Amino acid sequence: MTKQEPTLLLLLFLLSCSCFPVNNAQSTTILNVWPKPRNLTWTLPYQVIIIASNFTISTTTSHHNKHLSAAITRYQNLVRSEHYHPLAPPGVNISTNLPPLESLTLIVQDPDVELVHAVDESYTLSILPSSATLTAKTTWGAMRGLETFSQLAWGLPTCIAVGVHVWDSPLYAHRGVMLDTSRNYYPVKDLLRTLEAMSMNKLNVFHWHVTDAQSFPLVLPSEPALAGKGAYGSDMVYTPEDVKTIVEFGLDHGVRVLPEIDVPGHTGSWALAYPDIVACANMFWWPATGDVLAVEPGTGHLNPLNPKTYQVLKNVILDMTTLFPEPFYHSGADEIIPGCWKTDPTIQEYLSNGGTLSHVLEKFINNTLPFILSLNRTVVYWEDVLLSPVVQVPSTILPKEHVILQTWNNGHNNTKKIVSLGYRTIVSSSDFYYLDCGHGDFVGNNSIYDQQNGDDKDNGGSWCGPFKTWQTVYNYDITYGLNEEEAKLVLGGEAALWSEQSDSTVLDARIWPRTSALAESLWSGNRDENGKKRYAGATDRLNEWRSRMVSRGIGAEPIQPLWCVRNPGMCNTVL
Amino acid sequence: MKSCVHKTFPAQATPRTNKMIMMQGEPALSLLLLQFFQLLLLFSCVALNSNAEASTSGINVWPKPRNLTWSPPFQTTLLSSSFTIITTNHHNKHLSAAICRYQSLIKSEHHHPLVPLGVNISKDLPPLQFLSIRVVDPHGGLVNGVDESYTLSILPSHATLTADTAWGAMRGLETFSQLAWGNPTRVPVGVYAWDSPLYVHRGLMVDTARNYYPVKDLLRTVEAMSMNKLNVLHLHLTDAESFPLVLPSDPTLAEKGAYAPHMVYSPEDVKTLVEFGLDHGVRVIPEIDTPGHTASWALAHPDIVTCANMFWWPAGSDWPDRLASQPGTGHLNPLNSKTYKVLKNVIHDITTLFPEPFFHSGADEIVPGCWKTDSTIQKHLSNGGTLNQVLEKYINSTLPFIVSLNRTVIYWEDVLLDDTVHVQSKFLPKEHVILQTWQNGHSHTKRIVSAGYRTIVSSAEFYYLDCGHGTYVGNNSAYDNQDGDTGNGGSWCAPFKTWQTIYNYDITYGLSEEESKLVLGGEVALWSEQADATVLDARVWPRASALAESLWSGNRDEKGVKRYADATDRLNEWRSRMVSRGIGAEPIQPLWCVKNPGMCNTQHPV
C-alpha cells in the first residue's frame, strides 16, 4: 500500500496538471467562474500551483459575525476536499518550482454590516505565488469572493492558477429565486439545498411564496390553526424552528429569505381554519355557467369587508415579521378575480350601494399596508395591485418609498409602466423567467390532449409556454426599452418556480442550470467586452459549471450532449 | 412446492435469511392448502360473477387491469406477518427472484394512499397467510408475444394467482403488490382480476450515447418498467456522440469511442442488466444504429466512416447539403469491405451478449451529404450509381447475417420510407423485419402496415419524451428575442408531450382490423441530448406510465369513452407510490387536486 502511494500520486498529478501550452479553451476551463466575474485577469507566465492539503482561510479582521465564520469554515473544507475534475481536461503544467498555496488571507472592512437589499457585495481577489488575498467591504462580498476562489480550484491534488486578479461586483442588487411551496410541498432539506445552490451562483434572494389557495404549510405561533387545517398534512409543514433554520442557513450563505404571504387572493387554504373570512372558498373554480371564480383550481379571496379578516391578518403579519428578519415583506395582491368577491353578500351589498371592487381592494390595502410599514418593512406586491385592468388601486395609496412592484406580465412593457410611474421593480417576466412553463396544462379532464393528428404545433397548452430555455433566461435584458433614470428603478430579477407540476422530485432540474443563467445575466451581464451577447461562449462555460454543480450535489439538468463540451464549437450552428 | 430462495438483488433489499429458513418446513401444508383453496375458488367465482359491476373505488392498480372486481361488502384483511408466496415446483430462477422480491415488497412497503381509503376494516377476518401461484408453463422464455395473462383472486384467508407463464405470474404479482397498503399491511378481499395486455410490445427507448447513464440508473428504470407492466427496454446504445458498449471482439470501439473509461457498459454490466430484466419480465433489445449515427466508430476505425468529425452544417450550405441532422457527423461506408469485418464482429458480439431474439439495427437518417464526401462513393455515383444502391448494398451485406443468427431485425422506418435514401421492400423480408415508426403520426403507421410489415409505434408527435425543451445548439440566436417567444420554443418536435398526449394516442388510428394486427405495440423514447441521470426518472415517469396503461388495457372505459379524466386521479396515486418506491417521477398536479376530486377539472374547453 505505502509503496504504491507515490506512484498513485504521481499518476494523479499527471492526469490533473500535465501538458502545455495554455490556450484559450484551457484558460476557460481553469478560470471558469460562474457567474463570470466583471473583471478577471490571468497574467503571464500562466502558472498553476498546488493548494496545500492543510490549506487555511484566515481573516486578519477580528469579527464576531457567525455567518462569516460559517462561510469560512465551509469554503475551507470545500477547497480542500472538492477535487473537481473539469469535463474538458485543463492540460496545464504545474509549476513545481513554486511552493504550495498555504492560505487565503481575508480582509473584511466592515464585517458587521447586515445582509439587506443593495448591500455591497464587491470584492477583489488576488492569487499570487505563495499568497492569496481576498478583500471585501462586507461579509457578503467576502462570501462572493470565497465562492470565486472555490471555483478557481480544481483537481487532485488541488490546483489553482496564480497570477490571477479579480475585481467583481454585481450589476443588479436583487438576484433571486421564487419558489412556491403551497401547490406542492418541499421538505426543508430541499429548501436548504436550494439556498446552497443559490450561494454557489451568487444569488442573494430566496423569495419564498409560502402560502396559496392549495395549502398553508407555515406554522404561525399566533395562528396555528392556519397550518393545522390548511397544510397538506401534519408532516408537510414548516415550523418556526424550520424557518429559523432556513433563515440562518440563508445568512450563512449570503441569501436573504424574503417571505410572501399572498393576500387577499390565493387564500383558499385559509378557509379551512377561518371559513368566515374567505369569500368563495372551496367552490368549483370555473363553473359551467357564470363567472370564473379563480384563474386555476382552488378558489378563495380574503374578504376585505369583514373586520375579522384583519384580526387574523395582523396576527399573521406580526408573526411573519418576527420569524423573518428580512426588511422586505411580500404581500402578494395578484390576480383578484371579481367573480370570487361577488359571491359574498356583504360585498354584493357594497357594490349595490355604488361601491366598486377596486374600492374593496383599496380598503384591504389601506387596512394592511400601514401596519406592515409600521413594522419597518418595505412591501413588495405583484404588479397587479396597480396594473390589473379589472381590479386595482390608485398609486396614491401605494407610497413609492415603501412599495416595490414585482412584474410578471407583458415583458418589458409592464416593466416600463411600473418604473415610469416611479416605482422600483423586480422583474419576473413570465415570458422569460417562469421556470414551470412549457409542461402542458394540469387540468384533469382537458380534451385538447386527445388529438390523433398531433396537430399541436403550438405551445402545448401551457399558458406561458414554451419552456424557457437557459438561453431565453440568459438573453433577456431586464431594462430593455428604459432610459437611464428608469433603469435605476429596476432592482433586479427573480426566476420563478410555480409548483403545479413540481415538487422535490424535479426541484433541482427545473431550477438549475436555468437560474444560473439568470445569475450571470444579473451579476455581470449577458454581453462580452464588445457589447455582443455572449450566449455562445456561455454554453461551454455553463456545461462545465453545471457539471460542477452536479458534483456538488445539485441535480441540475444537462444542456447538451457531453460530446459538445468535448468538441468545442462543433455543436454550434452557422447562422 | 417451492418457497423463496435467498438471492441478492442489485437494487433491492435482500430478503431476511431467517424468514426464508422458517418457511422451509411448510411445503406439505402449503400443498394441501392450495388444493383446498382451488376448490373454494370454484365456488367464489360464481358469486363474484354476479357482482360484475362491483365497486373498484379505493383500490388502484396501474395499469388498470382489463377486469377487476371487488365484491361487497368490500372487506379488507390484514396480511399475516408470516405471509408467504408459494408456488408449484419449477426451476425458473427469474420467477424465484420475482417471488422473493414481491414477498419482501408486500410485507415491507406499507403504502399510504394520498387519499385515505374509505373501506371497512374487517376485524373478524383471519389474516392472509398465503398467495398461491400456479404457473402452467413456468419455463417458457420471455419473447415477443409471450402470454402475460393472469387471474388473481383474493378471498378471506387465501389468495390465488394463476398464469400460463412466469411472465404472466410476474404481472399478477405486481397487481397483488399494488392492492396491498397500510401499516399493518392490508389487502382487499373479495377481489377477482382477469388481466392480459392489449399489445404485446410495450416499451421504453433510452439513448445512452448522447449522454451516458450509469448502470444503476438503467436497473432502476427496469424496476420501474416492471411496476408498470412494461416489457421492453430498447437501448439505443451507440450513436455519433459516443460508443459506450465494450465489445469483446472489438474493444477499441468503446475504448476510443466512449466518453470516458468509467462511462462504459462492460460485458458484465450487460449480463447484469439482461438478467435483471428477466427477473423483472423486461426484455432488453439492443440497438446498434448503423450505417448513420456512427461518428463515434471513427475514433477506433477512421477508415470505415465517411465524413467523420466534420462540422455538421457547413457555412454557406443549404439544409439538403448538411452532413448530419445535428452535431456529430459520420456514416459507415458501405463500399468499404472493412466496414463489414468490423460490423460482423459487432453483430456477433451483440447477439452473444443479448439473448433477446430482436435486434435493432437502426438505419435512420441517412444524410446524402455525408456519404458524398467519400471518394469511393463519389466514384460510384459518377458511374451512374445511386445512394439508394449504396444503402441497399449495406442492408444486403448485413441483414442476412443478422437473420442467420436467429434474430428478427428492427429498423427505423426510414430504411423504407425516407424520401431521399431508402431501399426497396424486396430487400426487407417481412417475416424477419419489423419497422419502427417515428414520423408523421398515424399516416406512417398506415404506410408501414399496409406494405405488410409489423410495426412498433414511437411517433415523435406523441411518444418522444425529450421534446419541448428547446434546441441545444450553442449559439442559437433564436433565444435572443426581447419580445418573448410565442411559438413552440425551438424544439423540432415541440411541444412537450404531456402524459395525456401519450395516454390518448390510439396507435391503430385509421387502420383496418387486419392492419391493426401488425401493430405490435409502442415505445416512448428518451433521446438524450438534454437528458442524463439527473433527469432520467422525471423525464420518463409518469409519462411512460401513461403509455403503459394505454397499451395494456387501453385508454377508454367500458363505454368506449376516453378515460383520461378518471386516469388523472389514479395516476396521481400511482405516481406517489412510484416515488415512495424510489422512482423520481414528476408530479402532474398540485396535491390539492387529488385531495379534492373533480375540483381540478374543467367544464369548459381550455
Topology:
The complex is a heterodimer of chains A (575) and B (606).
Chain A: H1 4-16, H2 24-30, E1 39-59, H3 66-81, E2 101-110, E3 123-128, E4 131-138, H4 139-152, E5 159-168, E6 174-180, H5 188-200, E7 205-211, H6 224-230, H7 240-252, E8 256-263, E9 278-279, E10 301-302, H8 307-323, E11 328-332, H9 338-341, H10 345-352, H11 357-374, E12 378-382, H12 384-387, E13 403-407, H13 411-420, E14 424-427, H14 470-475, H15 484-487, E15 490-497, H16 507-511, H17 514-523, H18 535-551, H19 562-566
Parallel strand pairs in A: 1-2, 2-4, 6-7, 6-15, 7-8, 8-11, 11-12, 12-13, 13-14, 14-15
Antiparallel strand pairs in A: 1-5, 3-4, 3-5, 9-10
Helix pairs in contact in A: 3-4, 5-7, 8-11
Chain B: H1 17-23, H2 27-49, E1 67-70, E2 76-87, H3 93-108, E3 128-137, E4 150-155, E5 158-165, H4 166-179, E6 186-188, E7 191-195, E8 201-207, H5 215-227, E9 232-238, H6 252-257, H7 267-279, E10 283-290, E11 305-306, E12 331-332, H8 337-353, E13 358-362, H9 368-371, H10 375-382, H11 387-404, E14 408-412, H12 414-417, E15 433-437, H13 441-450, E16 454-457, H14 460-463, H15 499-504, H16 513-516, E17 519-526, H17 536-540, H18 543-552, H19 564-580, H20 591-595
Parallel strand pairs in B: 2-3, 3-5, 8-9, 8-17, 9-10, 10-13, 13-14, 14-15, 15-16, 16-17
Antiparallel strand pairs in B: 1-7, 2-6, 4-5, 4-7, 11-12
